Amino acid sequence: MNKTATINLSGQVFTIDDDAYKVLESYLNTLRTQLGDDDDREEILHDFEQAIAEHLLESLKVRGKVVTLAMVKRVTETIGVYEPTEESAKVSDEPRSGGWQQHFRRTLYLNKDDAIIAGVCGGIARALDVDSFWIRVLFVILAFATSGFMIVVYIILSFIMLDPESSTKGFTSGGKALSAGALVARSKQGFNRAQTNIRHAKIERRFSPLARFVKKLFRFVAATASIILITLITIGYVIAGVSWLAHRSSTNQPFSASPGGVNYALLFGSYLVLVLPLLAILLVSLAQRLVRTAIVVRIGALLLGTWLIALVLFVGAAAVAIPDWANWSRQHPHNGYFQLQVNKGHVDNICLNVAGHCNDHPQEQPKYIPSTNGLPPQPPKPQMMY
Amino acid sequence: MDNEHTKQQVRKGLLVYALLTVIAAQELYVADILKTLRGSEFSTQEGTLYPLLSRLRREQLISYRWVESPSGPPRKYYALTPAGNACLKDLDAYWGDINRSIEKLKKGAKG
User: Fold this and answer.
1) Is B46–A79 a contact, with Cβ atoms under 8 angstroms apart?
2) What is the value of ipTM here, to two decimals?
3) Contacts B20 to A, Cβ<8 Å
4) Residue among B78, B51, B71, B79 at smallest CA distance from A55
């Protein structure tokens, strides 16, 4: 009589004799140790597990339902011991020229090794070869910018993106004995994952190959278009901001209503609050080809810090300036620049017209009426907006 | 004396060349690669192949895509990248140079 265990190798569930399991476990542990701090350790281990699973399936086709010690020994001999290549782990990770098109060729997969929710961001990061942190930042910004629509997109992506992963951490938990309960839980988990694989594989089959082509095309076009668009928007904002500042920071009304410092704070604050996120997005989209990750992280942190300061500045200055403007506007209802319609303390309408007059107000101001009765000319009475 | 050690060194040095040649002919997954190599002087095992494939991928000479398999989990199918093709062309040329050099040396030794 033999005690058996249930294991999950690369999404395949095996029943395995206890002695065979111990040999297999030590083989995988040895591999893990030999790979050391190789950057691709998990991936290589996964490759090995998949190879073992395939060989075991072959053996099981010939005879039996249970993986025996003899089978494991034969399989590990077939696969052989790990043979490092001389330069392995010493190859530079710097992308080579012409390499970035390669990123788009890789199919988009969920990345369970680098997952916070479902591994969508991690998967995108791996496909694009950028740090997943920035993809997450982008997702969060977009989630706010699109009023939460991005969250729906995330959920959809988590279903669309494929799951190649099978628990690579299965039974190589440092050689510790597992309780029966943990064993059952793990094999169940593995089974569920295997089910998911099958489901995704079916989806893939239904939509390929046209869908795959469209997906690739879309990904390439979207990436190129977004970089161009973001660059243009950023340049536009910079030009518009500089000219606006130059025009407005003079003593023009209604800015004369508030102390000069407040106006500058308001202008710079609002400008930076708008432009910095765009710069951040631009940085991320250029990150993988032009600059190193360490520099990107530093610039990113700087941008974030500046943005927060600008936000505080903007909100603070606005709190000071808006009541001033409201006052000023009440005193100058037809200033031609700026109209605040104030109703019992609430701002009802804001009208900004750099060229001259607000359209919904009379263009002609009442003229000075020449005196006919000997009295001095009267200025027109200001019209109050209520 | 079977000179096995010397031969082994030659095989080891040429394994990358052989591997690139095999992958260039057709998009393959590891079992196919092993089967193709098995009939040649470069018969090898997964234990050698996986680290080598990983290295070549990092050097961006090869890339892979996932393909679903009729039985079991999706498989990695490897193909050459443009850089890999360029590398192979270079190695082909170099292999020609090596052959010519050997021939030349042989003649020189005779004459």
Assistant:
1) yes
2) 0.73
3) none
4) B71
